[in-house]
């Protein structure tokens, strides 16, 4: 029985190169993601910016409260 060892070695080499390139690409994408993402996305805005939404622990809101918050968002937001 003939076993093509050079063909198997070539496939393993190709697989190793693919895994290595995938890992390098993943590291580059992760680095760019960390560099672009803001450090604290939920902090208070500075300058003339206005924070419209407020963290409220209660999820039971009336229609009027939700309407008022939406109106404030459209009134002050862009």
UniProtKB/TrEMBL annotation:
Keywords: Membrane, Transmembrane, Transmembrane helix. It holds the Pfam family DUF4227. The chain crosses the membrane at residues 12-32. This is YqzK family protein.
């Amino acid at each position: 029985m003939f076993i093509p060892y050079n063909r198997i070695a070539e496939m393993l080499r190709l697989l190793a190169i693919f895994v290595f390139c995938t890992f390098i690409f993943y590291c580059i994408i992760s680095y760019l993601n960390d560099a672009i993402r803001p450090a604290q996305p939920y902090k208070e805005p500075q300058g003339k910016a206005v924070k419209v939404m407020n963290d409220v622990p209660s999820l039971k809101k009336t229609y009027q409260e939700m309407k008022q918050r939406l109106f404030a968002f459209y009134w002050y937001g862009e």
